[in-house]
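hiii, so i know i said id send this last week but things got crazy w the move. better late than never?? heres the sequnce for the chain we talked about at the cafe, plus the structure i predicted for it. fair warning i was half asleep when i ran it
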Amino acid sequence: MGMKPTLAIRPRIDVEVPACAMVLAAGLGKRMRPLTAARPKPLVEVAGRTLLDRALDRVAAAGIASAVVNVHYFADQIEAAVAARPGGLAIRISDERSKLLETGGGVTAALPLIDADPFFVVNADNLWIDGSADTLRLLAQRWDPAVMDALLLLVPLARASGYDGRGDFHMDPLGRVRPRVETRVAPFVYSGVQLLSKSLFDGEPVEPFSMWRAWHKAIAAGRFYGAVHQGLWFHVGTPASVGATETLLATA
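okay and structure toks below
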């Protein structure tokens, strides 16, 4: 009998954590109104701490040296919040005041500020609690540049607190990921945390476009992978979800 194939996403112990993460914080937060009528969504507080601070705290805790935060809606408020953080994590601002570039375009514009390859991208509207290991470090351990251009942190649909959709992705035993078929349900939800190769953005203009444009390149090349989150995860997308998340955090 032949040997079973080695899992492509098996953790590697002797690996350095990428030195930079981008935190996406430029969105308009329309679903979070009225909480976002006078502040950006990343500055909405959950259990006494803003979503942005929670994301940056996770980046710093993983030992990542620097972060890039993009700004557009109430940009001055985000810049002030970043400036008020204690030292330790070097944070640079990618300014989108003149034009909101969406997720893919925002990353493309920020590439000159991102001094790592691969690099993390973290959405500021999701909140997670680590499992038995630091989530970002675990993702770095599972990164394999020989086969991957994108490695997404995925949450089982049944454990996706605050999420009301049909799921986003399917994943095979080797960790290869494919998108959900439109009319069906998929077992995994994208967590808003990923590790990406800069090569996915080669030749891309600085213009508004979704992250899906980069993801489709990785899918077409067979270099699109996922890893399952082992801890808790919360999607904080509406005012009602803030209270619900606070209740769950109190019992976590």
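btw Helices lie at 51-61, 75-83, 102-110, 135-142, 211-220, 239-251. thought thatd interest u
miss u guys!!
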